[in-house]
Specification:
The chain is an alpha/beta fold. The chain has 2 domains: 199 residues, 3-Layer(aba) Sandwich (Rossmann fold); 175 residues, 3-Layer(aba) Sandwich (Rossmann fold). Helices cover 45% and strands 16% of the residues. The protein contains 15 helices and 13 strands. It has a 7-stranded parallel sheet, sandwiched between helices. A 6-stranded parallel sheet has the order 10-9-8-11-12-13, sandwiched between helices. Helix 9 runs parallel beside helix 10 and helix 9 crosses helix 13. The radius of gyration is 22 Å and the shape is elongated. Bound molecules: ligand GMT. The site of ligand GMT has 21 residues, from helix 1 and helix 4. Ligand GMT binds next to helix 1 and helix 4.
């Protein structure tokens, strides 16, 4: 199959999923064309089936905001034509699904029919998509997609609940390449961070409000009052500076390291004892799955799709959003030396269920179904 993948190329979860999916499909022999505004950060290896097309959107004195969607739609049109793509798969509804709709209509005028699959990732539905300034376009472009997938049952439920959706949504969960995330112990790194055998706690995110970074620091503050511990904060974003100040005000700066964006997150996770994800909303929680793949148990909120990943009392614990006390209590329980080994083992066992080898066939057979359906529709219109 020749597939065009459109996504955000940055460190966000949707871009990671889209890029890893494209890489895995290319390994299976599909021709994958990434159409993005810069090279996806995880597009880090050479494969004869992988191609990258950069969307160049020009600025013009008249534009206060350059019309990115138009440049993206035009690029999709040219890539579909030049590379004779079979299907476009867009990740994150805004603005990718509506740009794909426009590209599809343009191509139709030239007798080219290209099916579009839209994957809903989370905030495109639960936050930004609900905003009245986007909602009508989001609803329309989801309904106009030939196929729609969602990364969890909960996100699917929320999509139907809030938007007037007239089509089926297929749930295909996030996945992990366990081969890549196989525990590669960097003991020297752990020794440098935790010289006295402290517990190592990790949080990774894009430091947006929805991640409740303040809760991460508060939970850690409570933990380190009880046991020696260190916290690594990986990633960057709007809430980072506030968290650094909070750590300073609480007098625990020396126990928290803000590492910024990291490419090899698995190397840090491989030496961690506990992962914190107290998010306000989380459609799936890919970062938690990455932690589990490195044998790290998870303390999370019980919001969104997290209960579909984190198994209560087995791979970690879930608490109500903002329940710092409960999250602290559960963290201390997991970190107890008699409990930690079984939580670690269960976390890895659960992560294996989401291995790419289990999830990739779901996407491939979904593409086949959508292609077959769209061929039928095309023939009936001729
Ligand atoms: O929140 C992020 O980390 C980024 C965001 C995105 O769309 O780039 O992530 C969403 O998609 C991920 C991949 O499907 C999910 O694992 C995350 O749970 C989801 N984030 C939220 O729902 C807040």
């Amino acid at each position: 199959m020749k597939i065009g993948i459109v996504c955000y190329p940055t460190f966000g979860g949707s871009g990671v999923v889209a890029t890893e999916l494209g890489k895995a499909l290319a390994k299976e022999g599909h021709m994958i064309h990434f159409i993005t505004y810069s090279q996806p950060s995880r597009l880090d290896f050479l494969n004869e089936n992988l191609f990258y097309h950069e969307v160049d959107f020009r600025s013009y004195p008249l534009f206060e905001y350059a019309p990115y969607e138009l440049a993206l739609a035009s690029k999709m049109v040219s890539v579909v034509k030049n590379e004779q793509l079979d299907l476009l798969h867009v990740h994150y509804a805004i603005p990718h699904a509506s740009a794909a709709y426009m590209a599809k209509q343009i191509l139709k005028t030239e007798g080219i029919y290209i099916p579009v699959v839209t994957t809903l990732h989370g905030t495109d539905i639960t936050l930004v998509g609900k905003d009245p300034s986007y909602e009508p376009v989001v609803t329309f472009s989801i309904n106009q997609s030939d196929g729609v997938t969602s990364v969890s049952e909960d996100l699917k439920r929320e999509t139907y609940e809030f938007f007037k959706i007239t089509r089926d949504i297929e749930v295909i969960p996030n996945f992990i390449d366990l081969e890549k995330f196989k525990k590669q112990k960097k003991d020297h790194f752990k020794k440098a961070i935790c010289p006295n055998g402290e517990a190592l706690i990790v949080h990774t995110s894009n430091f947006r409000k929805v991640k409740r970074i303040k809760d991460v620091v508060d939970i850690f503050y409570n933990i380190q009052k009880e046991i020696p511990a260190k916290l690594l904060m990986i990633g960057d974003g709007p809430e980072r500076a506030k968290a650094e100040k909070q750590a300073h005000d609480l007098g625990i700066s020396h126990d928290i390291r803000f590492l910024g964006k990291q490419e090899a997150v698995e190397e840090v996770l491989s030496v961690a004892d506990l992962f914190l994800m107290p998010s306000e909303k989380e459609s799936f929680g890919l970062a938690a799955l990455e932690a589990m793949a490195c044998e790290v148990p998870v303390i999370s909120s019980n919001t969104g799709g997290l209960p579909e990943l984190n198994v209560q009392g087995v791979t970690g614990f879930m608490s109500n959003v903002g329940d710092i006390e409960d999250m602290t209590r559960n963290s201390l329980f997991i970190l107890d030396k008699y409990n930690l080994p079984r939580f670690k083992e269960s976390a890895l066992k659960r992560a294996k269920e989401f291995d790419i080898s289990n999830i990739l066939p779901l996407y491939e057979s979904y593409y086949e179904r959508i292609l077959a359906k769209s061929r039928e529709e095309m023939l009936s219109h001729k």
